[in-house]
Amino acid sequence: MFWFFGTRDGRKALRPAGKAGMATVLLIFASAPANFQAVAATSTPEWTFISSPDWFNTDIADLSGATEGVPAAPGWADGASGGRNGVTPAMEAVYGQIVAEMAAGGPELFVVAGDLINGRWYEEPFLDMFAPVTRRPEAGISAAGGVYYRWYRSLLGRYGLGTVIGAVGDHELGDDPWPAGEEKSVFLGDMRSAFAREMVDVLPLAPQIGGVPVQPEGTAFAGSSYAYQHRNVLFVSVDVFLQAAIGTVAHPIHGTVVPSVEGAHLAWLESLLAAADGEPSVDHVIVQVHTPVLSPVRMQTSSGLMLEGRKLSGFWDALRRHDHAHGGKVRLLFAGEVHAATATQARDSDIVQLVHGNPPRAPDSSAIPAMGQYLVVAIRPQQLDIRLVRFDLAADGSSVFWQPSQPATIGVTYASTGRTEGTLSIDSEGAVLAVDGSGLLEIARDDGLGLHLSLDENSAAGPFANTGSLGNEYYAGNVRGTPVSIPGRLSRGLRFDGVDDFVESGRGNPTGSDARSVSAWTRTTSSVRQAVFSYGSRREQLASWFELQLRLGKVQLSLGPDTVCQPAGVPAVNDGEWHHLAVVLPKAYDNICPDTIFYVDGVAYRPPATATRDPILTVPWDNFLLAVNNKANGDFYAGDMDDAALWGAGLEPGEVKALVTAALEPDLGLSLIHI
Hints:
By secondary structure, the protein is of the alpha+beta class. It is built from 10 helices and 38 strands. Helix 9 links the parallel strand 11 and strand 12 (330-335).
């Protein structure tokens, strides 16, 4: 691990180093390339493509049979939808506008890393529409695939984007989770087959790449994982949804499914990447899966599904061993699921993970404005230039369409012109891969400082800036209640009343048992149980969270309804003085309570040997919160707080002590950023 130290005028121990600091981070991998705008102005791209996961993430199609090449739904003539079609003229006009804008530069492909549809094809209205005679789910799934996937391809094809390179998302398989015995678990194979037939079999796949079959023959993924070469790029789409026996719970969150790539499926991927390295016609390999591997990533309105094992998985190891640093050609990992955009790199690889989907649909709630986004990727033999384009969406309520899970769904009626909100350039010409990002595609480090709320603003009304790598897109600190701005431990801080004051940021991650570190300065005299920093889920289907608490003035972690992790011998800190608190999950993955290290004023304390060994299983279904539990309805903090931060790595003891030491000498103006 490394720290960047630099003198600054500010006094915050965690204050980021700004553009100069980010350049230093990138130089770990490369010297800085020319920026995107300069490259675009001096060289015409050889060819381009569009990428947009989660497009639509809703069941949208013409069910009537009036669209050429798209059959009518079997129940359409019987009025199974009550007269509503699966798309309205207003929606077609809006989506036509968006796709026409995508197609304006002449892209040659449309790439989508999963969640093309909603896919809840197991509810009663679905059978009325797609299997009205047999009432057999298998028949309905087959018929629905023929309607929804063909209409999807038809919409894009009208504007010249007829070649669609898709990957399986959880919605293609009924939507996460898959409880044992439920119909979507029982018929998952049928849904996978419908995707393979309608989205993969229609592609002109070559039989082999460098002697390796383009599909993992003899596996359950023989139809849904595949490689497709277009010009000098090999696209590798990987179906990561590994199902155990239908009645077997394989994962505590996902039920019968584990998001993983294993066995013969993984061996195929490894062989394919090796073959691509030796194939002269391939300059770049782009792998796409639906589930992100690296975290933290920005999230909104998502279950936050992630690949099991993360960086310790065989999947990531296969990609890493074929990156540029190892003489390979894997440049990008595309992912979706989280409905936001983040460009992330890990310390052990120069591959850039790009998650970038956001469904172009009506708002889920008035609190979250609707927005769609896509990537424009320009390809040259030794360079990839990428723009993130975003557009606003609105719905006036006049456009109502039918889908199986919600027969009266509000459709979009307006889309703004797209605007560029991030760029990324990847240059593979030299021995070291050169990566340069800006805007929402500025590179984040998976083990770096993701959230940092210094609480320095003079006004307690907020919002408070997040100077961590996740930035203010969804992750600014929004004030709830009426906390008071006070002189803090470092600069300014907040005083919470213990009744209804708290600060709320974006959807919480790292997830599961991933490594992380949390720290904050606190000052309190209260002995009641109170939350300092929390996120996770208190929802009925899975109550699992990560909550740094004080109880009787002593630090502890609450991990679920009946799971508390407490260090031995830790002193009370409710003496009305400032204290620095930190908690560290040190392992990259698979942390449990006995692994956890607690710090008070830089001194380490550990749980006893008898502490619970239940796995830590943080779920990112609710937001980051300061001064309240992750349900935002209890354990309110009474006292002062300053400088809350979260890293995607386990800080070393010296690093924690450095935070305390730097804070004790604010006149030094030290700036620390974990890189």
